[in-house]
Design goal:
The structure holds three protein chains of three kinds. Chain A is of the alpha+beta class. Chain A is built from six helices and 14 strands. Chain A folds into two domains: about 80 residues, Elongation Factor Tu (Ef-tu), domain 3, CATH 2.40.30; about 180 residues, Zn peptidases (Aminopeptidase, 3-Layer(aba) Sandwich), CATH 3.40.630.10. The radius of gyration of chain A is 21 Å and the shape is elongated. By secondary structure, chain B is mainly β. In chain B, the strands form five sheets. In chain B, strands 5-4-9-6-7-8 form a six-stranded antiparallel sheet. Chain B has a four-stranded mixed sheet with strand order 1-2-12-3. Classes of the chains: A alpha+beta, B mainly beta, C alpha+beta.
């Protein structure tokens, strides 16, 4: 978000949600009204010797290449900026783009809507606002309905050269991640796994001891409580302009959601 | 009137130091009918433009065709590309950037550990070159080596943006300089002039100390200016003249005792030549004196 | 629905937290059912 414009027309920014300061230098951003600006960075010839540390946001400026009056005319304090990088295909079925977190979840919902074919559930699709800040969209969205169950569809961590441990075993292309968490309904997670096996949908397991950090956490405590589960598309480089997913995982996430709904879910029997 | 289409073509052309072919072709295509030119052994384009009259003093204009970039130094078993810098780059600009790899311009991204999984200082630290990698979406080394290779040049994949007031693109350093020279070569000049589209190398990461730079040459001679040069970190330039005297008569020219203090130096060769001059340069050496 | 091109369209839309309207427009385009604004979010019936 734009928090200031100085007399030379350089723009001050602050983060909305978990912005990674390490990926900002020399990065092109774009405003809602289509203005492109580059985050200022020192030429190496004039280096301050601080290559090892990301420039803190408080010292970060954006250059729109316009005179100050033009900047002030076309942009206002409070306007928001996003990464300008456009979606691109990599090898195989890999896709890289900013905002795959959580637009691929949105896409999975749109696809699932095409595949849902049952009266067993009344299914409401919630395209929530403000998840990255306080999850407020999911809180009010869930409250508006009398829900029996909910599945939050987000992205989670896949293996990459600098990710090890539990997430080192999650791979792009090996299917949606079914979350097992202390705040999610275990029976739903279990049923999702069974449905995946039954329908030959590839899947991976994501055990999370605490809260999931997704809309699921908020929806689960809506009103007097909702049985909830979380399904995630595996992703690399979260919260950068170069997030990477396997497209097959989006399609399979949609298939898994639809299969769970079409079979009546975890509580039929 | 600036020919933005040509500026766009120059800036978007891919040519990091040592791999300038695409840029050279583009420039030659523009100037070939307007002046005498030749390409030397290192890839420099040397142009002599006749003006309305000969000049009293010899002036050379030079612009460099190469841009900074990266080079693929390894391909991991999982298909990720390790790399190092070619020219001076501040590492802070690399994480999260889109790039193109090799002569087929394979798209890739410079990945970084998700901030959520970073502990303590990690979330503000820029990884060293040895820790960084490019993801082209390969699932294995085998799949990666089908489309890219060791030593491949890597360029920024940056958009070319312009508004009424400014240009925002990669390689404005020094393709805009090349553009200015192309425009001069295509126009009518008052005096004869020489232009050199040069290749030169900025070397970084050097240990402090006294260095020697040397080059071996042979050729027909006759250049009006031919010298080895080195620019130390304080901007001081030292030169040594090169005089060729015949086919295969190799000789080595060196500059010794150059003080390098802040890890950087620029080495190169500068030449003003006429159509018909010929020769070659080989065995560039640059080393810390023991 | 060509899922890949819908995904590309979604990713190209401006949608910083609190300014999601452009993304909602893309969603509305590709849903057969009617959408409603619920608080700050968008909801729709699947069927």
């Amino acid at each position: 978000m734009i928090t200031g414009i100085n007399d030379e027309g350089f723009v001050k920014i602050d983060k909305v949600g978990g912005v990674d300061a390490r990926v900002l230098q020399d990065t092109v951003l774009v405003s809602e009204n289509g203005l492109y600006g580059t985050v200022c960075c020192l030429p190496p010839h004039l280096t301050d010797g601080n290559e090892d540390k990301a420039t803190p946001l408080a010292k970060t400026w954006v250059d729109f290449g316009l005179p100050a009056e033009e900047v002030k005319r076309q942009l206002r304090l409070g306007d928001t900026l996003t990464f300008a990088a456009k979606p691109q295909k990599l090898l195989g079925d890999k896709i890289t783009s900013p905002a795959l977190d959580d637009r691929c979840g949105v896409a999975a919902l749109l696809r699932a809507a095409e595949l849902i074919d049952t009266e067993a559930y009344k299914v409401i699709l919630l395209f929530s606002a403000q998840e990255e800040t306080y999850g407020t969209g999911a809180k009010t969205g869930a409250f508006a309905f009398d829900l029996d169950e909910a599945v939050a569809v987000d992205v989670s961590f896949a293996s990459q050269p600098d990710v090890s441990g539990q997430y080192g075993k999650i791979e792009l292309g090996k299917g949606p991640m079914i979350c097992f968490s202390s705040v999610m309904d275990r029976r739903m997670s279990q049923k999702l796994t069974e449905v995946a096996k039954e329908k030959n949908i590839p899947y991976q397991l994501e055990p999370i001891a605490g809260a999931t950090g997704t809309n699921g956490d908020h929806i689960a405590v809506s009103k007097s409580g909702v049985k909830a589960a979380v399904v995630s598309v595996p992703q690399r480089y979260m919260h950068t302009p170069c997030e990477v997913i396997s497209f097959a995982d989006v399609e399979n996430t949609a298939r898994l959601l639809a299969a769970y709904i079409n079979c009546g879910g975890a509580f039929r029997d | 009137m600036i020919n933005y289409e040509l500026v766009h073509a120059l800036c978007t052309a891919k040519g990091i130091s040592g791999d300038e072919t695409a840029v050279r072709s583009l420039i030659l295509n523009e100037i070939k009918d307007y002046a005498d030119w030749r390409v030397d052994a290192l890839g420099n384009i040397l142009v002599h433009k006749k003006g309305k009259s000969p000049a009293k003093a010899r002036l050379m204009l030079s612009a460099h065709m190469d841009e900074v970039g990266l080079m693929v130094t390894d391909i991991t078993a999982d298909g990720f590309l390790k790399f190092d810098e070619v020219g001076g780059i501040d590492r802070r600009v690399l994480p999260g950037k889109a790039v193109t790899v090799g002569k087929n311009h394979i798209p890739g991204v410079i990945g970084v550990k998700p901030i959520h999984l970073c502990k303590g200082e990690e979330a503000q630290s820029i990884p060293a070159y040895s820790e960084m990698y490019i993801d082209i979406g390969a699932d294995s080394q085998e799949q990666a080596t089908e489309v890219v290779g060791y030593g491949d040049s890597v360029c920024y994949d940056a958009p070319f943006l312009q508004n009424e007031y400014s240009l925002n693109a990669k390689a404005i350093d020094d393709r805009f300089g090349c553009y200015v020279m192309i425009e001069l070569i295509k126009s009518d000049l008052e005096y004869d002039a020489d232009f050199a589209f040069v290749v030169q190398q900025e070397v970084k990461g050097l240990k402090d100390g006294k260095y020697t730079v040397a080059v071996s040459t042979q050729g027909g001679g006759g250049q009006s200016k031919y010298e080895l040069f080195i620019i130390g970190d304080n901007g001081e330039k030292k030169t040594a003249p090169i005089t060729d005297n015949g086919w295969n008569k190799w000789q080595t020219v060196e500059i010794k005792d150059v003080i390098v203090k802040n890890g950087k130096a620029t080495i190169g060769v500068e030449m003003q030549a006429n159509a018909g001059n010929w020769g070659s340069m080989d065995n560039f050496e640059f080393y810390l004196q023991q | 629905m060509n899922l890949e091109s819908v995904l590309f369209e979604l990713c190209s839309a401006h949608g910083v937290s609190g300014s999601e309207s452009a993304v909602f427009e893309v969603v509305k385009k590709h849903l057969k059912t009617e959408t409603h604004v619920t608080g700050s979010s968008l909801t729709a019936s699947a069927l």
